[in-house]
Each structure stands twice: as C-alpha cells, then as structure tokens.
Amino acid sequence: MWIELMYALLAYLMGSIPFAILVGRQFYGIDVREHGSGNAGATNVFRVLGKGPGTVVLLLDILKGFFAVQLAFLMSKIGGGAGTVVQLESFFYPVIFGILAVIGHMLPVFAKFKGGKGVATLFGMIIALDPRVAGLGLLVFVIVNIITGYVSVGSMVAGLSIPILFVRVFGYSDLSVVVFSLAVALLVVYTHRTNIKRLVEGEEMKSRILAKKRVKS
Predict the structure, then answer these.
(1) What is the dihedral of CA 207, 51, 138, 201, to 10 degrees?
(2) Is 12 among the domain residues?
(3) Residue 215: inside a domain, yes or no?
C-alpha cells in the first residue's frame, strides 16, 4: 500500500509544477496570473507572452500528465515491499495517477493552490493511455478553434468528444477508463465555466493557435 501512496503523491507533485508561472517570472519578470485571463495555464501564456513561451509551457504541461501515467507502469516494474511487484490488472492506477497530476496542475501546492484548468495535462494523460484518442481529440480541438477562434470552445468540444472516442470509437469497456472519460467531459466544461460566462456576455478573448497573428477581440 505504501508504494502506491508514494507514487500517487509523486504524481500530484509532478502535476503541481507551475510551468506557466515559472516561465513568466524567470524569463519575462511577470506573473501571468496578473495579466490576460488571470489563469496560470498555457492558454494565458499564449495570450500574454506569445507563441514561443506558450508552446514551451504547453509541452511541459502535457508532459506532466504523460509521465504521471507512466509512473503506474514504472511502479509495476519496480514493485515494493519484500520484492513484491504491483500488478496492473486494469487501467486503475494509470488513470488515478494521471488524475492526480491534473489535480496538481489545477491546485498546485507550489503555487498556493491556484493553478490552471488542467486541459494540457489532461491531454498528456490521454496520450499515455491511448495516442489514438489523443490524436483525434486534438484534431477536434484544432478544427473547432479554427472555426470559432476560441481556445476555450475548442477545449470544451474536444473534452466532450473523449468519452465518445474511448467507448464508442475504440470500444473500451474497462470501468476505470469509462468513468474517467465521462469525468473528462464534465471536468472540462466545469473548469471553463467562467469562459462560458464570458462567451455569453461576448467578452471572451479570441486566440487561434495556428494563426500567424493573434486574433484581437
């Protein structure tokens, strides 16, 4: 039991590394939480600092989720106690560790529990679980972002597509994956509730990730 708790804590701490804040402070001397949307995530870094820093933070946040899931497979190889090995009989531990990384990103212990929305870290987690689902989810995000001009709308639609991709398209029946995929859809919408309010009020900022110039609104 101790080995699982140790790896679970490590997954959370990994997710808690506030790359958006670190990049902003160390290289630009600003706290991104005091600018743009006030969010400590890659999207706000894109808005405030530009594509270069935004891309770096995005990739680092993705890697947090990816490596958190990999901790489960590392745990199964290393094991614990008197030479015992933790067997992965389902996706339970990979899902749990990935979720803990996402929670760490949203509620980081290293940044007074004020983090980002967790979409990038969640995406990294999905890459580790099934790259096909991640690839199609990314395609949905890009298409919706191009059409609407809103990162938030692209993120929400992509999130809603995850349970459909896992369960209907690729036929996953593992309970951990099914529950997780449904939770993803709910989580993404919930964490974007302020964005939904701004969209309704016409105050949401536009940002096309693949555009040559940032879209102003």
Answers:
(1) -20
(2) yes
(3) no
Whether 80 shows a pLDDT value over 50: the answer reads: no
Instruction: Report the residue count for the chain.
Output: 217
Residue 59, in any domain of the structure: yes
Q: Is the pLDDT of residue 216 over 50?
A: no
CA proximity to 38, closest of 188, 198, 214: 198
Question: 80 pairs with which residues across the strands?
Answer: 84
Model confidence at 212, pLDDT cuts 50, 70, 90, reads low
Largest CA distance in the chain: 61
Residue 179: inside a domain, yes or no? Answer: yes
161 token code pair: 């597509």
Question: Mean pLDDT across the chain, nearest whole number?
Answer: 88
Distance between CA 72 and CA 100 in Å, rounded?
A: 12
**Residue 76: CA count within 13 A, CB half-sphere:** 13
pTM of the model: 0.81
For 16-84, the DSSP string reads T--HHHHHHHHHHS--GGGSTT---SHHHHHHHH-HHHHHHHHHHHHHHHHHHHHHHHHHHHH-BTTTB
